[in-house]
Amino acid sequence: MKLDDLLESARADEPSAEQLASLENKLAGLLVPPTPGGAPAGGAAKLAIAVAGVTVVAAIAIVVVRAPSPPQHPIADAAIATDATPSDATMPPPDAAVTVTPDATPPRERAPEQSLAVEGAMLERARRALVDRDAGGALAICERHARRFPRGALREERERLAIEALVKLGRRREAVARVAAFDRAFPDSVQSERVHALLDSR
Amino acid sequence: MGGPPAFETVYRDHVRLVWRTVRRLGVRDDDVEDVCQRVFEVVHRQLPAFRGDARVTTWLFEIMRRVVSDHRRSAYERRRDQHEPEIDVARAPEQEQAVASRQARALLDELLAELDDHKREAFVLCELEGLAVKDVAELIGAPVQTVYSRVHAAREQLERAASRIAAREGAA
Questions:
Q1: Alpha carbon of B167 to those of A1, A4, A124: distances in Å?
Q2: Is B92 exposed, middle or buried (0-12, 13-18, 19+ CB in 10 A)?
Q3: Which residues of B touch A137 (CB under 8 A)?
Q4: Is A23 on the interface with B (CB under 8 A)?
Q5: For residue B59, what are the contacts with CB-CB under 8 A and spacing of at least 6?
Q6: Residue A74 in 3-state DSSP?
Q7: Which residue of chain B comes nearest to A5, CA vs CA?
Q8: Do B111 and A6 touch (CB under 8 A)?
Q9: 20 to 30 A from A190, CA-CA: which of A11, A171, B119, B160?
């Protein structure tokens, strides 16, 4: 076979419809639904509970993005979409000590399975942002998590990620304050040693 | 001048390009979807900061290069640690045409795999995806002449490899 023929066939080498659908499903939380009449909320929620992981949150987010109040950005990400104050997505992070408040009331109640799935996906995105050397992005996601889930099941993990992000951003003073807040809020945490070790890293 | 394009628009207009390029840059079939997902997550995160004076495709290629490079490094380490073989496992039966197309694709993959990363990248972006040489030069931070040389050298090497494979298959 000639090289040019091979290259020509390669240019038409597209993903299959199934592959595209699967990718789109994984990104559903970031994409605005194409038509107003999509899957009902119950269906999305059931799917969310049935399949663990990021995909789940994507399904929930489709429903969430349809919320009546228009967010500031047309393509709100899953985390921003249900924030009580959408416009504060770009605000600087609140005081470190304030973010760890075990007794605060969550802004809105939802099924625990859904919350956990959303929490997990948000923190997964924060973790990936750190891997992608985007500590600022990771910290912003952690702060949104803190506003939405002040009593979230994964708040220890969130704090660990936020501290790591602060260290990577060179905001050491805030990182130290946040570790102290972590110790006060979670004195028996299994993450304690790991969190303190972050202050020695770079 | 408007702000950055909507994420949905970037996704719909470029998902096929991203998919193809990710594959051509050496990501295994099984991993392409995950890598594309990561590319678009980064796109979504960085879109508000996207400068309107840059071309979307150039910006996308920049993101793809980084994500693919990270992926290949971590995939290599993972497979090395798990002693996972590089070859794909058996596939489901397919239509004849699909098999032929897959064979052509596998052949091209085999050829591209012979190139070093620099040549492969220049060749894929210029020859397969049709980017202008000057855009590729800007993207990878190399002089235009270097990109020309890499594309030229890649093409020569691929021609030789294609002849060799044709001869081998003819003899079999």
A1: 10, 17, 50
A2: exposed
A3: 45-46
A4: yes
A5: B50
A6: coil
A7: B104
A8: yes
A9: A171
Q: What's the token pair of residue B72?
A: 């290949």
Predicted TM-score of the model (pTM): 0.48
**Tokens 């009580």 identify what position?**
A84
Residue with tokens 């270097």: B146
Tell which wins on pLDDT, A63 or B34.
B34
- Token pair belonging to B43: 């796109």
Q: Which amino acid is at B127?
A: E
ipTM reported for the complex surpasses 0.90 = no
Collect all residues of chain B within an 8 Å Cβ-Cβ radius of residue A165.
none
The answer to whether B57 and B14 have CB atoms below 8 angstroms apart is: yes
CA angle A160, A164, A169 (to 5 degrees): 150
Distance to chain A for B22, nearest Cα, Å:
11
Highest mean pLDDT among A32-46, A65-79, A113-127, B43-57: B43-57
Name the minimum distance, in Å, from the CA of A178 to any CA of chain B: 25
Which residue of A2, A129, A131 is in closest CB contact with B45?
A129
Burial class (CB in 10 A: 0-12, 13-18, 19+), A21: exposed
Contact B155 A73 (CB under 8 A): no
